[in-house]
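Long-time lurker. I teach an intro course on protein structure, and each term I like to show students one example going from raw sequence to a predicted 3D structure in token notation. This year I'd like something fresh instead of my usual example. Would anyone be willing to generate the tokens for the chain below so I can use it in lecture? Attribution to the forum is fine with me.
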Amino acid sequence: MQKVHLISGGCGFVGRNLVKRLYQTTQDRLLIIDDLSTGTAPERWFPNCVIEKTSDFEYIDQEKRILFWKGDFKNFLWYIRNEPQWLQRTFSIERFNDVYHFAAIVGGRSKIDGDPMAVALDLAIDAELFYWAVQHRPDRILYPSSSAAYPISLQTHEGAVALKETDIQFGGALGQPDMTYGWSKLTGEYLAQIAAKYYGLKVACVRPFSGYGEDQDLSYPIPAIAARAAKKENPFEVWGTGYQGRDFVHIEDCIDCILLAINHIHDGSAINIGFGKLTTFREVIDLFCEFAGYKPEIKPLLDKPVGVHSRYADMTYVTNRFGWYPKISLREGMKRVYDAAVKKLKENQ
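-- Reply from a regular --
Happy to contribute to a lecture. Here you go:
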């Protein structure tokens, strides 16, 4: 029997890469919801996209396995909670098998630090999702938390450590997460555990670190740095000193680990998704400039928001329990991003 999956925020960076993976590896139907406030319209990222519009949604593939509904995910949940027959009447769908929940107020560091109250709206989105889920009862739910949920006290210049899953203890020490974004993701994880423990839902949580890829929006640092290296910017500006570090993991590895999580975790607990290596932004700049064949002067922008000093994952638990490890090296992944930036630069000239 053909399964039907719901993907909120399905046109965002992670969502659209998951959609393409599921379409390639299954024969399932996919309903993607996105208001395109930050996401990218399907015709710009889905291969051989064929738009067929109806009154309420669009098919975006020739096989008519992918349905796209443009709108606020909270509104969609309101419709299907208050008028359950709308789902059957509009989409010929009675229930969902898997739910992948990527709808969120997202953005780079400037958004997290610059508009924390808007980011706090993620609390409302997640609460609506789980409130609906305990009534609709899908087979499984994937909730993406974030490395921002970890205590910032473990990510300082003097005391940075590889963050392991047990550094967050519900019922014990939680610490101070990173701004309202970290709080919202921490709360979402708690709701996931409540849904699993008290309502019997199968829920998996993941804590991605700094995911990147060829089709990521320029509001994020890796594609932005790649684009500036492709233009041979000199001096090369970097937010802060550039010595702050992150754990960069390619989107293909992120999707692999997301699918592993939903297949094996059912109790609402969370696992890290990272490479397990701390890389500074200066090292990233050096790598891209090596690809570009020049060595610029580095110009620190000390007035820009930079977040915590060092954030990286301890991947021991995931490797020992599931035998999973990232397959794409930092050099290979960054070269892919750089090549994509060069291609785009030539197309725009």
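Some talking points for your students: The longest helix spans residues 179-199. Residues 214-246+278-311+328-348 form a domain with the UDP-galactose 4-epimerase; domain 1 fold (CATH 3.90.25.10).
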